[in-house]
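Re: Re: token formats

Sure, here are both.
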Amino acid sequence: MKFEFLLGLMAFGLAALFNTTPKQKIVKVLVLNFDPVIEAEGNKRLHEVFKWHDPRWLAKEYSADLTECSSGFVRYQIVEWRDLDEFPLKVDGFAYDDETYLRCWRERKGWHEPDGVDYRRLIDKFNLVERVNRGEIDEVWLFGGPYFGYWESHMVGPTAYWCNSEPLIDKRFKRNFVIMGFNYERGVGEMLEDFGHRVESIMTKVYGRWDYKIPLEQMNTWERFTLYDKVAPGNAGCGNVHFAPNSEKDYDWGNKRYVWSNCDDWLNYPNMTGKKRLVNCDEWGGGDIRLHHKWWLKHLPKAEGIAPDGKLANWWNYFVLP
């Protein structure tokens, strides 16, 4: 009886261990919205002065798109929103003031170099070590204007690695997390592009390689998913963030040329049939950045369990909470 009980307990433990795809992941977000009040422009926020997008609208649409694309698997919960009446500090300690920034934007020159923001100061100023380690937040979104110096995505933590930017190794953190950088002059499509490049970086790390030059039969699952006709004639998958299945150059999302693709089959992953069909840009929005990126994200595998290649069959596990 004891032996049978122990076997049952072991089976339960293994099932719990490998049941790595819960129905939903709640991602807790801290938003730091650097959106200075411009007194000389009637006390309007910077995004209002230039009629740029409302950061709150951008955050709502972006969150909704990723929930939709993941079939409800990921849901973002903004646990704190900070509207900051300041410009972020650059790595050399410089910060714009209202007058300088407005002049540079209107004259389209005079921008400060180095451009990059000081992420270490942000981490310390907003107590990110304590808040991440206590589980209060899972990631951070930075909003700001052009030339604020944000990376599109930036991984921080004890074993951080390339995430469309050089990693920031910080042993004070108990785990890795991502700081996203969003520009409220741009739209939701560009935010999804930031996320898409985050996906590309993390999945390359998961599979250990992203190389189109090796023989097709030797490619890993990630490489096959991202194939496009230009690099694999007649064998396109879903392409990548910059290249749709039929793209002939970067950002060529409006190409009317038909190519053979197995893009539909990835919706069956890992139980793929090998079926292909002819596709063109009518599938992904005819050149619209947001529609293309949503189409691509929707095709990322999100099944339960472990795939035959030994990886999780739901790739969203990897890049939502790395």
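Second one below.
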Amino acid sequence: MLNYIIRRVLYAVPILIGVNLITFTLFFVVNTPDDMARMQLGIKRVTPEAIAKWKQERGYDKPLIFNDAENGAAKFTNTVFFEKSVAMFAFRFGRADDGRDIAYEIRTRMMPSLAIALPVFLLGLGVYIVFALTMVFFRATYVDFWGVVLCVALMSISSLFYIIAGQFLISKLWHLVPISGYGQGLDAAKFLVLPVIIGVLSGAGANTRWYRTLFLEEMGKDYVRTARAKGLPESIVLFGHVLRNALIPILTGAVVVIPLLFLGSLITESFFGIPGLGSYTIDAINSQDFAVVRAMVFLGSLLYIVGLILTDISYTLVDPRIRLE
């Protein structure tokens, strides 16, 4: 298994380089360093001298990917892409275009993102599985039929509707929780209740239907018929056998998501004013802060690869037949 993990880590290096190259290319297709300088400096202070100084201070005065003026390897190393990308592999993200330290911002905003994402993930996983098992237990009945109808209805509604409707009803009309904002310590709980409920509700339709499909597929296999032939109750068959054997595909979707919880939710944090990594990324995109966007894309790619490795490892825990060689 150790050799497998080492190979996967080595495979991740060219993937991360490719992701950075694509992000770099797409960003500078839309914005040149001059455009970035004009946005940061403001209309009143934009002069050729100010733009040149801004670019020099932030390292954007060099060629983007290829430097014709240099010789040998310096043609590629003395460029914006190389100098801005290589340091990230040592987790040195540098400073944002507005001067703030990106690593400090990530450490500060990580906990507010986790405060929303972790409860949504854990609570949602439990709710979706229980709801799906209930429909499978009462399959071919009105409980199953109306459960599927409800899931389809929930899937058909945009997540923005849940956010706007929840803020209007629960916060503005009923005044149960604040409409947006964030606090420190236990005071943050009242700001997190509504985003967590909306996060679980918005994902209920798609996830519950998926889990229901997994459980129904397991119900048609031979081991289920054997368990029934032995006289086991349907509840034991469902919760003791079907659920356990459906853990592999469930882990595929669940374990991959765990590392990405650190990045938060872009839409939810923006609408509820949560100072997490999601809103940080949205603000960076709006302000065309390439340093922050590049750092967040790199971090997201890295966490996703970690999630894939954890998924493969978790297979061996739930299915002894699988061995990573």
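The chain has two domains: 2-90, 102-318. The mean pLDDT is 86.
- S.
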